[in-house]
Automatic annotation (TrEMBL), chain A:
Residues 18-186 form the FAD-binding PCMH-type domain. GO terms for cellular component: membrane. Pfam families: ALO, FAD_binding_4. The lineage of its organism: Bacteria, Bacillati, Actinomycetota, Actinomycetes, Kitasatosporales. The keyword Oxidoreductase applies. Keywords: Oxidoreductase. It comes from the Bacteria. One of its GO terms (molecular function) is L-gulono-1,4-lactone dehydrogenase activity. It comes from Streptomyces aurantiogriseus. This is Oxidoreductase.
Automatic annotation (TrEMBL), chain B:
This is Short-chain dehydrogenase. Gene3D superfamilies: NAD(P)-binding Rossmann-like Domain. PANTHER family: 5-KETO-D-GLUCONATE 5-REDUCTASE, DECAPRENYLPHOSPHORYL-2-KETO-BETA-D-ERYTHRO-PENTOSE REDUCTASE. Keywords: Oxidoreductase. Belongs to the short-chain dehydrogenases/reductases (SDR) family. InterPro entries: NAD(P)-bd_dom_sf, Sc_DH/Rdtase_CS, SDR_fam. It holds the Pfam family adh_short. It comes from Streptomyces aurantiogriseus.
Length: 453, 251
């Protein structure tokens, strides 16, 4: 019998805290409860949700059900010889790191936060600083179990059409219950990091193009408030897992310890307008100046290198009650001019953005709605209250679409629907598969409604 | 669905010939709105308003709706909501009446009250329930500064707007946490056909300015919007003026 699962109606937003909608939040504690929740979710359907780190409305479902999958969080089996893990989709990457690092294994791909679930990582087909060499998360997923609209559980192997629809499919093909993931071996929990400054955007792109292949991980923080000759100045941090031999004697006794520290959370109420051009401009200037011109082989804790913001729980509150928008796009190699134009426009517009990141993507993975493709990706946070922001981002969309690029659905909260097909040419295949797999439209989200996915 | 900036994709206007509503619709169509339903009494003006919005690229239809016939609201609006989610309901119908005439013609005065207040109570409740069951959406109610404190010169209209305003505020509180956002808009004197021929009050504004304030309020998820904004201060001062003085004010 499908078990009854407790549910309550709550207001739900993404990490950007914009566009709230109300849904019945259901937290299944077993696969049977998950099946029951999907079968009984009612006319307005349901959508799985992990730790709510998608910035926009991907894990919201107004008037329907939201399946909070973090209650299914068991790590079932670790093959410490081969380096694979079989776990529930509700397990966070943080938990995986706690379990796997002492055994000498690391997740194959991590975004800028550890607080995402494996299910969310597949649903958004996340990427990390190693995309240029390792691709997106789904490349390392050997198989998964998917609870589909008819209430059945299917084993979906890597490389099948259903897998490619699910990887990046934003939870709209079904609820991922478990996944088998191939891991990355590490000797220590330290990173050997090279830092250098780039004086402008062209310098930055030249450096990334010339030497990215020498590093497993690479990313550049970019100062989008710098103007004129300094437009696009940046700090590159690139590195790899430090080998045991690189550690000082003191650290060698526990090379695989993983105890990331956390500061107190951001306060629940933060006044609007803290992040202005002036404050953010000052922050950016200091951040750029304090970075070394060139430093090699610095040892950093893994969490400091990958997840600096995880140190401040609820950092998203600093944008006040209006919340913020994250804009991330990619344009292909050969479209450097488009990137220059967009960076120039953002700099001239003086968007107060202090968390802006530029990265060079490598080969794409086959997910139909998977975001990464070879080229340049820029991600920036902007307070949603900034006047005229909506129209400005629409203009950037035009540039991105004209350059054959796309914006990232896991971060989107405002894309104009008619640009979707240009950005994601396989969206029609996706819709067709959904029409067949889920004819009643059981799986639906605010994102899906907004963009007609 | 509304986007991160509160911009709706679908719009239902109750009072489809309201100049403020049409200015708002034009503004929203320029941004994200694709489907518009204009509800109002069937008339050439309603059809031509629809045609104007169609020319801007929206998918527009009209629906026969009469604020004075609350019995029909459930059916009429139910049908609109059954065809798809409505992201924004703009409750814009209202009549000004003719104070001097209506004071001598109580039936005419009651028509003002019924249109502006009881018509809004019934259609507002129907819309609120539909929005609540879809779990998202905004209900924007066009109130008026005239409802803030009744004036000798137009207390029949003013009292109807006072009732509407209080109703909408209470509804907003009732819907808090349901995903539905209720926003009360209090414009001052708006230059439009409704006020044509009247002496202009200080701080007069335009339908376009009200539309801009509505868009801003949607982005901020405001609960109360004054147009122009300075009226918030002016009216909070006026509210505390003693009756004996207020009565004599040339407002």
């Amino acid at each position: 019998m499908p078990a009854e699962t407790a549910s309550e109606t709550v207001s739900v937003t993404g990490w950007g805290r914009t566009a709230p909608s109300a849904a019945r939040l259901i937290r299944p504690r077993s696969y049977e409860e998950a099946v029951g929740a999907v079968r009984g979710c009612g006319a307005r359907g349901g959508i799985p949700r992990g730790l709510g780190r998608a910035y926009g409305d991907a894990a919201q479902n107004a008037g329907g059900a939201v399946f909070d999958m973090t209650g299914l969080d068991r790590v079932h089996a670790i093959d410490a010889a081969d380096g694979t893990v079989l776990c529930d989709a509700g397990v966070s990457l943080h938990r995986l790191m706690e379990v796997l690092l002492p055994l000498g294994w690391f997740v194959p791909v991590t975004p800028g936060t550890r607080y995402v679930t494996v299910g969310g990582a597949i649903g958004a087909d996340i990427h990390g600083k190693n995309h240029h060499g390792s691709g997106s998360f789904s490349r390392h997923v050997l198989s998964l179990e998917l609870l589909t609209a008819d209430g059945s559980v299917r084993t979906v192997g890597h490389g099948t059409p259903l897998f490619d629809a699910t990887a990046g499919g934003m939870g709209l093909t079904g609820v991922i219950l478990t996944a088998t993931v191939r891991l990355q071996p590490v000797e220590t929990t330290y990173m050997a990091v090279d830092t250098e400054r780039a004086s402008d955007l062209d310098d930055l792109m030249a450096r990334l193009t010339a030497t990215d292949h020498l590093y497993r991980y690479s990313v550049a923080w970019i100062d989008l408030l710098a103007r004129g000759a300094a437009t696009g100045r940046a700090v590159l941090t690139r590195g790899d897992h430090a080998p045991l031999a690189a550690l000082p004697a003191r650290a060698r006794s526990a090379p695989l310890s993983f105890r990331p520290s956390r500061l107190p959370p951001a306060p629940a109420f933060v006044p609007e307008g803290l992040l202005t051009r002036r404050t953010v401009g000052l922050f950016n200037k200091v951040w750029y100046r304090k970075a070394p011109r060139a430093r090699t082989g610095e040892l950093q804790r893994l969490s400091a290198f990958f997840h600096p913001l995880d140190g401040v729980p609820h950092w998203n509150r600093v944008y006040g009650r209006s919340g913020f928008v994250q804009y991330q796009f990619v344009v292909g190699h050969g479209e450097e001019d488009a990137l220059r134009r967009i960076v120039g426009r953002i700099a001239r517009r003086r968007c107060p953005s202090f968390l802006a990141v530029l990265k060079r993507f490598g080969e794409a993975d086959p997910g139909w709605l998977s975001f990464p493709r070879p080229g340049w990706t820029l991600a920036l946070d902007i307070p949603a209250a900034l006047p005229g922001l909506g129209a400005f981002l629409d203009e950037l969309d035009e540039e991105v679409a004209a350059a054959d690029g796309r914006v990232y659905l896991a971060k989107d909260s405002r894309l104009r629907p008619d640009l979707l097909t240009a950005m994601y040419p396989r969206v029609d295949d996706f819709r067709a598969l959904r029409a067949e797999l889920d004819p009643r439209g059981v799986f639906v989200s605010d994102l899906a409604r907004r963009l007609s996915l | 669905m509304k986007d991160a900036f509160g911009l709706p994709q679908s719009l239902l206007v109750l009072g489809g010939t309201s100049e403020i509503a049409l200015a708002t619709a034009r503004r929203l169509i320029a941004r994200r709105t694709r489907t518009v339903c204009l509800a109002g009494r069937p008339s050439p003006a309603l059809e031509s308003a629809a045609a104007d919005l169609r020319a801007l690229g929206a998918d527009v239809r009209t629906v026969a709706f009469d604020a004075l016939d609350p019995e029909s609201h459930e059916t009429v609006l139910g049908k609109v909501f059954a065809e798809g989610d409505i992201d924004l309901v703009l409750l814009a119908f209202g009549v000004l009446g003719d104070q001097a005439h209506d004071e001598r013609d109580p039936v005419a005065a009651v028509r003002v009250a019924q249109t502006n207040y009881t018509g809004a109570v019934s259609s507002g409740l129907v819309a609120a329930r539909a929005l609540q069951s879809q779990g998202h959406g905004s209900l924007v109610v066009l109130s008026s500064v005239a409802g803030e404190r009744a004036r000798r010169a137009n207390f029949i209209y003013g009292s109807s707007k006072a009732g509407l305003d209080a109703f909408a505020q209470g509804l907003g509180d009732a819907l808090h946490g349901t995903g539905v956002h209720v926003m009360v808009v209090r414009p001052g004197f708006v230059r439009s056909k409704m006020t044509a021929g009247l002496a202009e009050a200080p701080l007069a504004t335009t339908p376009e300015a009200v539309a801009a304030a509505v868009e801003l309020g949607l982005r901020r998820r405001s609960e109360t919007v004054w147009v122009p904004g300075v009226l918030r201060v002016v009216m909070s001062a006026l509210r505390h003026v003693p009756r004996a003085v207020f009565r004599r004010l040339p407002v």
